[in-house]
Amino acid sequence: MLSGESSGARATNEVARRAVALTIMLGTTSVVLATTILNVVLPDIMREFAVDQGRVQWLATGFLSAMAATMLTAAWWVRAYGLRRTYCVALAIFVVVSLIGGYATSIDALILSRIAQGAVAGVIQPLAMIALFEAYPVEERGSAMAAYGLGVVLSPALGPALGGLLGQAFGWRAVFFVTLPLCLAALALAPAKLARFAPAAGRRPAFDGWGFLLLCSFLLFVLGGLAHAQRAGLTPAGVAFAAAGSFVCGAAFIAWEARHRNPMFDPRVFRNPAFAAASAVGFAYGMGLYGSTFLMPLFVQTISGFSVLEAGMLLLPGGLVLALCIPLAGRLTDRHSPHYIVCAGLACFALSFFLFGNSSADTGFWMLAAWIALGRLGLAMMIPALNAGAVQGLPLTQIAQGAGALNFARQLGGAFGTSLLSLLLQWRLAAHQQEAMTALEAATRAFDESFIAVGLVFLFALWPGWRIRRTAFPHGPQ
């Protein structure tokens, strides 16, 4: 009898956990899908609003920058209002700003709507890791992180394919509306399925306003400096001003957070060697993934001559590889030390972009798709191990801080990588145009060198990846 009750309780708990995972991942998938779904229709937006690459890249960089800025506030929102209320309100705002973006009539309004989308997405995305770590026992968290990784990584992989399909059929505005059904489904499920996540008892913590202001100032100096360099070129005075401002604001932010009683970002999480290493890998992953998903649609539409639909569909085979392999990677993470799996994934991703570094207008669709699939195989191996390896070494009281910091590192890498690669592409294109070669040859070489830069980022990330060892964890099988 007791055995039957125990079995029934386990079954009930498993159903409840799956309901939590489904509800939280609907919203997470929506906001991550919005991150890259617009990239494939950027050439259409450039034509409609008569703007250049430097201006339109803010649709990607602005989203990622705002997302990075608000990500570290997620832990405060959860403590102050509870996960369920935070999730529901943020999703409702995301629906509204998505509608505003879809009906925008100027490039400025479109950029502002993307920044607002990113700010809300930054609050929503860390909630999934927090909820899954609270809902699942230690021995099942690797598989839970595979589910989380599937939403976080599959969405940007499939987003351009879906964006290409919608852009070809209905125009670029349709990409703002495609995530709305997922958001509405999550809003319908959340009141009942997330009822267990109540606000913490006691007095509501004060918001770290000065910390948030210093963080935004740091991002403004870093990303604003890169944007200015694209418009006016790299000058010694401009570089010195941006570097000095970034250093001062970044150092002031760390110093303030280390002294604050209720920081939105706790630097102490980086005392754990595995977490510090995982954050470095997460930064590199963000640079490579989001930077490359900005470059690839531009490359295949300007160099290969692909249509919007073909540019989007190019990523579909890789997305399918990712979907098939990431559950297996989650099971491997439950059984083996994550540093082996993370490094294997980084190596695959690096090789993928070194192959892209030799591409040209004559490279066929299926060859490009195969190279992308190799990179997505690397992501499938890397993400569950990276997520689980980062936070399993932290005490339970630091899980929320760790989740926010890891996501922040990834998004900061994405914003920085997108801006830096856009600047690198513009610089190399200008340099090659001065040589005795055709415009197509100059553009091809500029793109190839940018792809090689992405490969080098992943190659250098092997060193911190090797430091994410199981021996650093207090939990799980050895």
Automatic annotation (TrEMBL):
Keywords: Cell membrane, Membrane, Transmembrane, Transmembrane helix, Transport. It comes from the Bacteria. SUPFAM superfamilies: MFS general substrate transporter (SSF103473). PROSITE patterns: MFS. It is found in: Cell membrane. It holds the Pfam family MFS_1. It is a multi-pass membrane protein. The chain crosses the membrane at residues 20-38, 58-78, 87-105, 111-133, 145-166, 172-190, 210-229, 235-256, 277-300, 306-326, 338-356, 368-391, 412-430, 450-466. Residues 20-467 form the Major facilitator superfamily (MFS) profile domain. InterPro entries: EmrB-like, MFS, MFS_dom, MFS_trans_sf. Belongs to the major facilitator superfamily. EmrB family. PANTHER family: MAJOR FACILITATOR SUPERFAMILY MULTIDRUG TRANSPORTER MFSC. This is DHA2 family efflux MFS transporter permease subunit. It comes from Novosphingobium cyanobacteriorum.
